[in-house]
Write a structure and sequence with these properties.
single chain; alpha+beta
């Protein structure tokens, strides 16, 4: 028996005695009555325990008087209606401490700062806030798998060790068995893999090889970037969702992205109402309302060139800090204007200047742009980025040479264009960015169990 099952079958258990195991979050001891907040993590809902100090057994009162917040307990009692909350509670008959909690337990019944909770990240899953955040994260992850699995996609486990940097940015973590503390000089030819190897920044390239065999695939796993960045949206280890679809061009990809996002948000709304209600109050944000608005909206589509033209005209009244330019990337304020003011909805910005994007993107006929697309979302900014892939062997090779990317070491990727290739496209979405948007949490450190950022690798 757990609390989730008890709430699901509350009518069946009314008036019956039950035994449960869990933790004490709070204990309000009044003169004649006492109330305990009890949870076991199987549901976001708390279970209230009550006792009458005048009629309770001496043994139980002795146990209650010594009880500490955070203690792990076994409780037995009778299920009775909770008229105030239209649910149920437990009238305690016995309580046994399974795991005592020391006096210096950091999580006392008060609101702690997020900075404090990061310092105690191994305990923060016990708080109401992080029980809500990580339950939403769990539901979102399952919704993503359900979306792709129900549509015939193959789930591919791409490698975490790789010899290529797909983004060409060089922000990778080197993997080696050499130990500098012992004075060992790293010679990659003699290293474990016999060549320079890194933690993967993406599973996309390997995913493409499977798309050329299974038509529709997706990856969902951890990726690593060695960017020395301490912003609220960057982490050195994070999770990525990367579908890859054969026989699909850029505009078909936008259709997929829109359907995917709206379906995932719909699932989260249907399964996490209590968690979202709590997070709305905590962050003072209309989380459910803005998700419903996105789901019902028609996502706008605008080329990068047209977006800059719109922004240049708007600059006459908006007076942007960063002036929009056809040769410059979009700034946050530009994204916000497009989503919040110009379109009042999410926006696909497509056909980007090739110098802004990776080598594998399809080169348009104008020779200046590539078939890339970013999805901009109100209150979130860029949420997804994708492209139609370059399928012409000679143009791919030329672009790699232009950027100094070794075609020899990535022969297998180039050969996909020679051995029965076809038009294909894919996108990537940082999972934590989705969770930030859904939960209203402002920092990536607060939506991932144990964050890895420059200078931080605790727990």
């Amino acid at each position: 028996m757990d609390i989730r099952e008890l709430f699901a079958k509350k009518e069946e258990f009314l008036g019956k005695e039950v035994t449960l195991h869990g933790w004490i979050r709070n204990h309000r001891n009044q003169k004649k009555m006492g109330f305990l907040d009890f949870y076991d993590g199987t549901t976001f809902s708390l279970l209230q325990l009550t006792y009458n100090a005048e009629t309770a057994s001496p043994d139980m009162m002795a146990a209650l008087s010594a009880l500490k917040i955070g203690s792990c307990t076994e409780i037995t009692g009778t299920v009775v209606p909770n008229e105030r909350n239209h649910t149920i509670e437990i009238e305690l008959s016995s309580l046994r401490v399974i795991g005592e909690c020391a006096e210096d337990y950091p999580l006392q019944p008060k609101r702690h700062s997020l900075e404090f909770l990061r310092e105690h990240a191994y305990l923060r899953p016990r708080t109401r806030l992080f029980q809500a955040v990580f339950r939403v994260r769990s539901v979102a992850a399952m919704a993503i798998h359900e979306y792709f699995q129900s549509r015939g996609y193959l789930y591919v486990h791409t490698p975490l060790f790789t010899a290529n940097d797909a983004e060409g940015a060089g922000n990778t973590f080197t993997v080696t068995t050499f130990d500098p503390s012992k004075g060992e000089k790293c010679d990659y030819a003699d290293d474990f893999f016999g060549r320079h190897t890194s933690l993967a920044v993406t599973g996309q390239l390997e995913g493409e090889t499977f798309a050329m065999a299974f038509s529709k695939i997706y990856t969902f796993g951890p990726t690593f970037r060695a960017e020395n960045s301490n912003t609220r949206t960057h982490a050195s280890e994070f999770w990525m969702i990367e579908p890859e679809v054969a026989f699909t061009d850029l505009f078909g990809l936008m259709d997929l992205e829109e359907d995917f996002l709206k379906t995932i948000l719909t699932t989260i709304l249907s399964r996490c109402d209590s968690e979202l209600e709590y997070l709305e109050k905590y962050n003072n944000l209309p989380l459910r309302e803005r998700m419903k608005k996105l789901i019902s909206s028609e996502i706008a589509r605008v080329s990068f060139h047209d977006a800059i033209t719109i922004l240049k005209e708007a600059d006459k009244t908006e007076n942007f800090a960063f002036k929009p330019d056809y040769d410059s990337d979009l700034a946050k304020e530009h994204e916000k204007y497009l989503t919040d003011k110009k379109f009042g909805a999410p926006v696909f910005v497509y056909n980007w200047p090739k110098d802004f994007k990776a080598f594998y993107m399809y080169q348009n006929d104008d020779k200046e742009t590539v078939a890339a697309v970013d999805l901009l979302v109100p209150d979130a900014g860029e949420l997804m980025g994708g492209s139609q892939r370059e399928t012409r062997y000679d143009l791919l090779l030329s672009r790699m040479n232009e950027l100094g990317i070794s075609a020899e070491s990535m022969y297998w990727y180039c050969n996909l264009r020679k051995y029965g290739g076809c038009t294909h496209s894919g996108f990537g979405m940082g999972f934590e960015r989705l969770i930030i948007y859904v939960t209203g949490m402002e920092n990536i450190r607060d939506v991932i169990p144990y964050y890895r950022t420059p200078g931080n690798c605790d727990f």
